[in-house]
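new request in #modeling-help
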Amino acid sequence: MKDTLNIAEKSTFFLASQENNNKFQSMDDFLKWFENKRKNYFSVEEIPFNKLDQWYFTPDRYSLVHQSGRFFRIEGIKVKTNFGKLQEWEQPIINQPEIGILGILTKVFDGVRYFLMQAKMEPGNINILQLSPTVQATKSNFSRVHKGKLPAYLEYFIDTSKSKVLIDQLQTEQGGRFFKKRNRNIVIEVTDDIVVLEDFCWLTLAEIKQLLKIDNFVNMDARSVLSTIPLIDDVVLNEIQHKRLCNLTELEINNKIYRGINLDLIISACTQITDISSKNQLISWYTDMKVKYELETTQIPLSKIKNWDILDSSISSDDRFFSVIGVKVVADTREVTSWTQPLIKDVHIGLLGFIAKKINGVLHFLVQAKVEPGNIDVIELSPTVSCSNYNYLIENQNERPPFFDYFLDNDNVNVLVDVLQSEEGGRFYQIQNRNKLVVLDEGVDFNIPENYCWMTLNQMMDFMRYSMFNIEARSLISCINFCY
Amino acid sequence: MKDTLNIAEKSTFFLASQENNNKFQSMDDFLKWFENKRKNYFSVEEIPFNKLDQWYFTPDRYSLVHQSGRFFRIEGIKVKTNFGKLQEWEQPIINQPEIGILGILTKVFDGVRYFLMQAKMEPGNINILQLSPTVQATKSNFSRVHKGKLPAYLEYFIDTSKSKVLIDQLQTEQGGRFFKKRNRNIVIEVTDDIVVLEDFCWLTLAEIKQLLKIDNFVNMDARSVLSTIPLIDDVVLNEIQHKRLCNLTELEINNKIYRGINLDLIISACTQITDISSKNQLISWYTDMKVKYELETTQIPLSKIKNWDILDSSISSDDRFFSVIGVKVVADTREVTSWTQPLIKDVHIGLLGFIAKKINGVLHFLVQAKVEPGNIDVIELSPTVSCSNYNYLIENQNERPPFFDYFLDNDNVNVLVDVLQSEEGGRFYQIQNRNKLVVLDEGVDFNIPENYCWMTLNQMMDFMRYSMFNIEARSLISCINFCY
């Protein structure tokens, strides 16, 4: 459990190191440090539901719950919508009504901005450890509903009077797997000295952007927070536009020297002047989508979900889909307790893909308004393509969603991002999506269905502040860097 | 019923007049035209529930509903919240899940922008007729769920391909009386010729702003749409700032000459440069309020609402509060059918008040984050003071909300707006709120509770686009004009 682990960490990992420790001279140094952390041995094994400790099915196998009533519940829902081809279905879903905190501390050392990141274990993680935000905490953690110590650094996110809140937004999680789940995504700037605990380190945004090119390295919670950080702010943009005239080949952004940066793409994606749709037009389109599409969900017993069965070791349907399993986590270091919990498993790799294209010389992204059963208000803005079973769709051409074919291996597109990223390991068991950003030639032209719309990166970042983009889109946005 | 009336209007009022008709040389001409409309005689009388036609209580008097299942329902809810002093109560509430359209057509004639407004009867209106938007329609209307003709001009709001959408936003109605009700607020610019039907007329924004100074003249739906129209846009603001250097005493805004305009206040309220809180800081405060406050509502039978009784002619509680009544509408013109319906009645006048103050030379408004039972997502942004029984609070000093005393008759404040405005006459029976904007001296200083925040008018207009302001705040914003 995430909560259990936080308590354990706090109690034993509190080994103060120098404040300036855990910054790295090179990416190799960092990777060595990180690999070294993996040596703490954890094993995760699938177990049948009746071996789960403290988790049980409620009467008539209505839901799968924890005896404390905390953490999360696995429930069944019946979904009706007028969106897409499949307009009625039933499925299991995770219900976790608490709003959590995903927080990153940032500090400027000698003119260079760093972010405090954590090498954190989660049972569903591919490779066990992934790079995580400074803090991942549930409301139970920080409102002290239960006993036990607080997660490290949580105090900075509870009492912000001594620091500066740079970003603080409510953002949602996967509407296909979570029922109306959202977290507070926070970036706090501190100026006082900070003790860097073992398993934490300072990284610059440029370094993190490099790590986002490595498969399954930066966890979903970190990507969620990172997506809210502007690639460059207006001040830097002005600077770039000014320096561009000097044929600059290296550039200082976010206090970090970039070499070989694609100035043209950055300016093009972040410009506000020459976007093809005004903010009012985009809000009108968004309003239209919210009114046009309908979503109705009703809770039903897990045991009655059509086409799904509760087996000894899984709640599952057709092999094409996800399943619910139980796992047991064992650590051979004495720091971490052993525990069991349910997880969502999906052996199929999904695809999250944005198409981008210059329109009137300005880079625009093709955004989809999408209905998913756990959405808080019917639609959320999504990547151009978002699907959970890439290989199945490669083999079944008829079932492909619009624009899928641009993400097949294709000589005619410029691939800027192509990386496997994991879903959150506290709820998902080794689930990966291929995150892909392809840029089409300005000449490529096609009609777009009514629930798609072109936006610049600046427009997307602006709308993101109002919780309009889903985690799938934000994951992909976090990977964008325009640097070679 | 609103719907019935629309059908009747459409069928008989389709008396084409010249396009340029129904523009007026003076406010007197307009008021003569409008008074003349009142001659169509309607009477509205209170009747007992058992005389309601087609409306009935469901078994165990659970809800009060229309036999068609359309229109709206009166239901009971139990409310729990951690906001304010009273944290648990029960009350009746209107449930009308459809998203309606409130739309205004606009057109520029000879360089002057006009808005197409309607003299419209509603049973709950004070003075029967009030100035209304071009279109008020429910989704049943425009999706043709029922038979009958469409409301006049609705086609412009359904097919926008030939016109320009200037504004198109989802906006909520009273969270204290409606359960999660919202409408699409739309302003459409047309360039082609338009037939002006009887009961419709063209008015400039300056003329409408003058009419907003008359008690109970412009209806709530019109105020809701008008609040979304920027007082001046950035282009005009630049123009003002430029001309200010010339000691201008008259000014053309929105294609209309203003005399005696308070340039200083306009520039001050709309400036973006010197506001005391950045957009990110305001979003952080808004996020904090949404996470901090909780709201839980459960439907209960009308007959079981604590401290409320279903009587022959009303559902009522203590005299201090609103009640639900039945009314019968009779018209002596053959155009309009007679009908009966429930309405919400409240003989007490409410207060909606904004405090404004220059901070660092820039006008800021004191905005409240408020929980009301019908809110869609826990909190909405509200005027500084918003209460339903002004006189009761004058007499009961202990129960006054924060900042109430600034709205008592007071020599130390500059009153910019002070007018009685009606709630929507299709659901509310002669309910009025005193809308008051007071400007304090820059020197006046006080601490504000955590659920209050200072914003410039520009920041408020920006957040309004994302459905963050409630109808009470928007009603008051619609009355702001800064002209003498």
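bot summary: The mean pLDDT of chain B is 86.
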